[in-house]
Design goal:
CATH topology: Arc Repressor Mutant, subunit A
Structural class: alpha+beta
CATH class: Mainly Alpha
Number of helices: 5
CATH architecture: Orthogonal Bundle
Distance between the termini: 11 Å
Number of domains: 1
Radius of gyration: 18 Å
């Protein structure tokens, strides 16, 4: 069976974004056409389906990296901030975009939150400390199904891929 690790990312993510949009798992909020994706960008994205593509990339990263949080994802979607005459410095991507996309993926049942341990706060109340988010069985099934559908295109584009 073909998994999401067996096909190239440049073919998997657009197909996964189209599948997420087709099933109604994610939809761009009304503010999505005005927002930048990080401090390293000067303008909002020009693609019409950028929200679905970003959600697909987030789903793949969560599946690949295991329990992962919003901060780690924002660092991986970040870039280098232009500081003018000063050296460029690393900057994180937009946490609000990532958090909203993750919430939509959780509502669709593709991603779930993993608890680590209970802790007590200052007021004496018990709260759960979370390890991060992982992909559910339904999310893994969707990733593998899209990878299986993309596999013939990938083999045609990359001739040596049929060995794997």
């Amino acid at each position: 069976m073909t998994t999401y690790l067996d096909v190239p990312v440049d073919l998997l993510i657009p197909a996964l974004g189209a599948k997420l949009a087709e099933e109604g798992a994610v939809s761009a909020p009304e503010w999505a056409e005005f927002v930048k994706t990080g401090v390293t960008r000067e303008r909002p994205p020009t693609q019409t389906d950028w929200w679905q593509v970003r959600a697909a990339a987030i789903l793949r990263k969560i599946a690949r990296q295991g329990p992962v949080g919003v901060t780690a994802l924002s660092q991986s979607f970040g870039g280098y901030k232009d500081n003018g005459s000063m050296p460029n410095t690393p900057a994180a991507g937009s946490r609000h975009v990532i958090r909203t996309a993750i919430q939509q993926l959780e509502a669709a049942g593709l991603v779930e939150l993993v608890d680590l341990k209970p802790i007590e706060n200052v007021d004496g109340e018990t709260q759960m400390l979370h390890r991060g988010r992982v992909v559910t069985a339904a999310g893994q099934r969707m990733l593998d199904a899209v990878a299986h559908d993309v596999r013939p295109t990938a083999e045609a584009s990359y001739p040596g891929l049929d060995k794997y």
